[in-house]
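User: Hey, quick favor. My workstation is busy. Could you predict this chain's structure for me?
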Amino acid sequence: MARVTINQEECISCGTCWSECPEFFEENDNRVSQVVEKYRIGGNPAEGEVPPELEKCVKSAAEGCPVEAIKVE
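Assistant: No problem, here it is.
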């Protein structure tokens, strides 16, 4: 299972990730990207585990991030 880390300090709130893959990414109250609660690791909104059915969507969203704030491993 792939793991995602979002560098929230680098996030510029462009909306690409939550537009591209709203099943996994969402905007928080500060307009910064975070992982939806269902997929968070240890309750951390900046880390998540990607289920196989969302891998393509998550990778596409990460590739679309203009500041490369999303890492998929």
